[in-house]
Amino acid sequence: MISVLMSVYKKENPTFLKASLDSIYAQTLKADEIILVEDGEIPPALEEVISQYSDLHVVKLEKNLQLGRALEAGLKTCHYDLVARMDTDDIMMPDRLEKQYQFMIEHSEITVCGGDIAEFMDEDVILREKHMPTSPQDLYRYGKKRNPLNHMTVMFRKSAIEAVGGYRHFPGLEDYDLWSRLLANGYQIANIPEVLVKARIGDRFASRRGGWAYFKRYLQLRKEQHRIGYLDTKEYIVACVLTFGMTVMPEKLREKAYAVLRK
Q1: In the chain, fewer beta carbons within 10 Å around the N or the C end?
Q2: Is the Cβ–Cβ distance between 150 and 117 less than 8 Å?
Q3: Is 233 in contact with 226 (CB distance < 8 Å)?
């Protein structure tokens, strides 16, 4: 039994939301429930799209709590242990849920299963594919420097997520914070070496991942990774240096760096 967990807020695009929902309903293996969290009041155009899907389980939050808290509220309403995350502007490949469900059934030792993404702009022109390490051992090491999972592709076991404290308020880094706590507590993660989701990126993708404010938030994550024992002192220093380099470099240079790193 599979739950799909999503969160929408007022600034999102109704056309993108509909495309995302349509891709979920078109899966070769259907989800048993789709949980959509309305993170605060949303405009009529988004409500109109949501109203077209009568079997959506909508969780309405009175005010915008931001993504981490919204996902935690949605997670609590999921009835099934296997939960697939999805962003409301991305598109699932038709057999995503089927492939991940089969993988999770066959690998009971894996807590989270992700996959690759194909990044595209509004015109649906694929810019590049972001491929990830696949084995638990490689991902444990990879996660010490970079986010080891494409968050919009993951399917996880709700029981394990709850055991490490669930989603928390960590703007822009909610998922990386969660994976770090899982890895620090001995849970295993894996990636399927296939594109599972077409991920929509905007023209300001690199700018949202840079600047002093973003670096300070990332530094808090590095401190937390060190505190919980996922990073030793040497790894913590290296991770902080790498994070500083990527976040404070000029935007144009960061765009070029992402173009290389995300391949």
Answers
A1: C
A2: yes
A3: yes
For the stretch 88-98, pLDDT in tens is 999 999 999 99
- 204-208 own/partner pairs: CB under 8 Å, 24+ apart: 205/255, 205/258, 206/251, 206/254, 206/255, 206/258, 207/251, 207/254, 208/172
Summarised one tens digit per residue, pLDDT across range 116-161 is 999 998 777 888 999 999 999 999 999 999 999 999 999 999 999 9
The answer to whether residues 14 and 45 touch, using CB atoms and an 8 Å cutoff, is yes
Measured in whole angstroms, the distance separating CA 14 from the mean position of its chain's CA atoms is 20
Q: Model pTM? A: 0.90
Report which of 123, 119, 179, 108 is spatially closest to residue 148, judged by C-alpha positions. Answer: 179
| Euclidean distance between CA atoms 86 and 198, whole angstroms | 11
